[in-house]
């Protein structure tokens, strides 16, 4: 099994470099690949922030990626949960942090205006709380 870095996946989805995109296609088609969750997190950032793709399209790409045959994604259930929460407007990185914290009693953040409110609205467990003095 081989692992892939973010740039392989970015070339695969963006098709912005003919030669590298062709190589990335062959790698993905060959299967037997491991994708660390940190690579998935970085891919989301690259597609959204660097390539300026809309959030819905980015989440579709991530869902497509983890559904490909021959692909093993680290902590797949956490990635799936983060994609679902992303569909509710929660930032993918925050959603992944939350999914990885499933065994905790709460997740603390200073982002009360966005993340904590969305998490509360969608009744996520563990609850996301803003600590106060």
What attributes does this structure have?
133 residues, mainly alpha, 7 helices
Q: Explain this structure to me?
A:
By secondary structure, the chain is mainly α. The protein has one domain. It is about 60% helix and about 10% strand. The protein has seven helices and five strands; from the N terminus they run βααβααβααβαβ. The strands form two sheets. Strands 1-2-3 form a three-stranded parallel sheet. The protein has a two-stranded parallel sheet with strand order 4-5. Strand 4 (about 105-110), helix 7 and strand 5 form a beta-alpha-beta unit. The protein is elongated. The model has no long low-confidence stretch (mean pLDDT about 95).
Ranges with pLDDT <50 over ≥5 residues?
Answer: none
Average pLDDT number: 93
List the total number of helices. Answer: 7
Number of domains: 1
Q: How many beta strands in the DSSP annotation?
A: 5
Helix percent reads: 55-70%
Taking all Cα atoms into account, the compactness measure Rg is: 16 Å
Order of helices and strands: EHHEHHEHHEHE
Counting helices, strands and paired strands, the structural category is mainly alpha
Give me the side-by-side strand order of the main sheet.
1-2-3
Strand content: 5-15%
Using the alpha-carbon principal axes, give the shape: elongated
Distance from N terminus to C terminus (CA atoms, Å) equals 49 Å
């Amino acid at each position: 099994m081989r692992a892939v870095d973010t740039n392989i996946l970015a070339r695969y989805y963006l098709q912005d470099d003919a030669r590298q995109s062709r190589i990335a296609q062959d790698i993905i088609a060959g299967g037997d690949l491991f994708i660390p969750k940190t690579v998935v997190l970085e891919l989301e950032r690259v597609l959204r922030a660097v390539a300026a793709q809309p959030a819905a399209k980015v989440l579709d790409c991530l869902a497509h990626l983890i559904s490909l045959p021959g692909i093993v994604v680290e902590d797949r259930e956490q990635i799936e949960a983060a994609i679902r929460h992303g569909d509710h407007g929660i930032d993918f990185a925050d959603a992944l942090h939350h999914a990885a914290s499933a065994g905790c009693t709460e997740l603390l953040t200073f982002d009360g205006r966005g993340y904590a409110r969305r998490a509360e609205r969608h009744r996520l467990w563990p609850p996301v709380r803003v600590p106060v003095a």
